[in-house]
Amino acid sequence: MKKLAVSACLALGLGVLALPALALDDPSEMLPNPAQEKRAEAIGAQLRCLVCQNESIEDSSASLARDLRHVVRQHVAAGESNQQIMAWMTQRYGEFIRLKPGFTASTLLLWAMPVLALALGGILAALMLRRPRSTEPLDEREEKRLAELLREQDISR
Amino acid sequence: MTISTRRRLLMTLPVAGAGLAGFGCWKMLTAMQDGSFDPHAIRRDKGSAIVPDFALPGLSGAGDGFDAAALSQNARPVLVNFFASWCIPCVAEMAALRGIARQIPLWGIAYKDKPEDARRFITRDGSPYTRVALDQTGMTAIDWGVSGVPESFLILPGGRIAWHGASALDETLFRREILPLANAAP
User: Fold this and answer.
1) What pairs with residue B106 in β-bridges?
2) Chain B residue with minimal CA distance to A96?
3) Cβ separation of B3 and A51 shorter than 8 Å?
4) Given CB atoms, is B112 within the 8 Å cutoff of chain A?
5) I need a labelling partner for A54 at 20 to 30 A (CA). Which of B48, B70, B127, B129 fits?
6) Do B30 and B59 belong to one domain?
7) How many CB pairs under 8 A join A and B?
8) Smallest Cα–Cα separation from B141: which of B154, B132, B131, B151?
9) pLDDT tens column, B162-186
């Protein structure tokens, strides 16, 4: 048991350590200005790698992701704002490139889903819990039927 | 409502939910298989987009390159195809491209390819392309919104992008989606 706990802790620790590893293949990709590089990384983390689809371009080592990282850094170095760079990307690759899509009419259901699911679950739970705890007392007919059944049981014994 | 009917109703709710979700998944998967739904194609409205500015060199012995101006000045719609000699779907697409090139002018852009490889690739069995250019860095392709090869664009006179497809072309797809748009162009 102790061994298990130790290995679990180790695995967790390794997982945490592995998190900040980005796929910058080459340090020369980085911008010389650390503030700009940090901004470029933050933007890149919001952009989907279109080859791997569920990785950001900062995490992916696909060749397209490398090129897109380069483009982001070019735009950052040119002094463009985050919004301008995002707009440049979505104009070319559509909303699909944004790992966190904007709040529009077509993404309304996507964004509202957690609230909807919670509300639906709440309603279901309320309906289940509202079921009466105590049952009504038996009426005369039911009492008689019960007595009959009990008697039958006695005889069979 | 008696307790038992309500209980039965509550029981059917999750079952119905799971059924609905299953039906949705099945619909999506079949649509992906027959090509009518492409999750990759969630793109902006191409109807209003204009060809981005670019100027690309040619391939010696296969074409002398072209730029945005040359592409926009066409009197007829042109199909632009991004390809690469290292891309297997592009090899498979070639036969269909030869057939399509008989019906519409086809211009090719070699994506991240060595000039010699690209030249050999398109001249091996007869080039389907009217004009050929080389995008060695892949930066023009990014400006076009290309995420891989092969991808094709229908360009109307004036440089308007009327259609963008992110898969290999074939005769069926060409007739169903591209030809009607090309014929409708003024």
Assistant:
1) B79
2) B42
3) no
4) yes
5) B48
6) no
7) 45
8) B151
9) 988 888 999 999 999 899 999 988 7
